[in-house]
Structures are given as C-alpha cells and as structure tokens.
Write a structure and sequence with these properties.
By secondary structure, the protein is mostly helical. It folds into two domains: 39 residues; 50 residues. Helices cover 57% and strands 0% of the residues. The protein starts with 5 loop residues before the first helix and ends with a helix.
Length: 121
C-alpha cells in the first residue's frame, strides 16, 4: 500500500493547527487517529511529512537498457543453458538468478532457434 499524498498530510496538519480535534480531523479526512497523531508529531518535531520509501522493495536486476545486451548474449550463445547464461551474466554484469533470466526471456519473447544438429538427428 502506498502512503498518503503529501498534500493530504499537509491538510491534516493544517486542520489540527486551526484547532480541530485530532478525532474530528481523522473523521473528516477518513484516516485513523494514529495517522493524524503521527503527522502532527512529525510536524511539531520539524521533520518532513513526505511519505518514506517502502522498505525492501526490490530494484530491477535487469534494467531496460540492458535488454539489448541480453538479447545479444542469447543470440551469440543460443546453445547455452539458462544456468550458463546466468553464470556469464554474473561475471560481466552482477547478480542474476535463473528465474529472473527466464522471466525476462519470456517478456522479451525471445525463442531459441533449434537446428537438426542440436536435436541429435
């Protein structure tokens, strides 16, 4: 869940400053009383009211600008397994899991072209 907007937080603090009770402010803005108390406390302490980032949100392992590099590796080494692709990627670009690579390959709609030699015919 995302935090409340900065505008709403400022309106809540302004309402308390104007003399409304915290319970009335909570009802008016449809937030919990503890939310009103928290924003008021932050304001009194001179701390910013803006929402903090959500902890633990994962960063993208493969950035969109790296897709061309990945596609080139896939094309150049089409006979490699996923594990071999991951090992090569880690050596040059940093951490990557097999699952992440598999998902990205599916998103990019890349398919390996199979020839008769690779099938053993």
């Amino acid at each position: 869940m995302r935090g409340y907007s900065l505008d709403l937080r400022q309106r809540i603090v302004h309402a308390v400053q104007e003399g409304m009770s915290q319970a009335d402010v909570a009802r008016q803005f449809q937030v919990s009383r503890s939310t009103v108390e928290r924003y008021w406390r932050l304001h009194r302490q001179g701390q910013p009211l803006h929402p903090r980032p959500i902890p633990g949100s994962p960063s993208r392992v493969l950035q969109p600008e790296q897709h061309a590099v990945l596609l080139r590796q896939l094309e150049e080494h089409a006979d490699w397994t996923l594990a071999e692709h991951v090992t090569a990627w880690r050596a040059q670009h940093g951490p990557l899991s097999v699952t992440t690579l598999w998902r990205r390959i599916q998103q990019l709609k890349w398919t390996r072209k199979k020839d008769g030699a690779s099938r053993g015919t």
